[in-house]
Amino acid sequence: MHSCSLYTLLGSSLAVIIGLELWISIIVSACIALLYTVLGGLYSVAYTDIIQLCCIAIGLVSKFTIIRVPALHDVMLRQL
């Protein structure tokens, strides 16, 4: 069930960006993920997960830094 929702999410994003039908974009995104895993092996998947974890950590730290530092928070509010 988890992988189905991920492929639907990837397919929806691909459908919006490229303008394909939803079912075609889901199949294309599943083939891309399968090809990536087959060619790179599980090491490539593990390294991708590590990179995603680092990006999430950087995003969380920067968000809480912006909230805690009043000068940065004011700048962000002015840009909205």
Shape: flat
> Main beta sheet: strand number and arrangement?
none
**Average of the residue pLDDT scores:** 84
Low-pLDDT parts are none
Q: Helices and strands, in N-to-C order?
A: HHH
Quaternary form: single chain
* Estimated radius of gyration: 18 Å
Tally of contiguous helical segments:
3
Count of DSSP strands: 0
The amount of beta strand, in percent, is under 5%
SS-derived structural category? mainly alpha
Q: How many individual domains?
A: 1
Tell me the helix content.
over 70%
Please report the distance between the alpha carbons of the first and last residues.
37 Å
Task: Give a quick set of tags describing it.
single chain, mainly alpha, 92% helix, 80 residues
Q: How would you concisely characterize the structure shown here?
A:
This protein has 80 residues and is mainly alpha-helical. The protein contains three helices and no strands.
Describe this protein's structure.
There is one protein chain. The protein has 80 residues and is mostly helical. The chain has one domain. The protein contains 3 helices and no strands. Helix 1 packs across helix 2. The longest helix has 47 residues. The radius of gyration is 18 Å and the shape is flat. The model has no long low-confidence stretch (mean pLDDT 84).
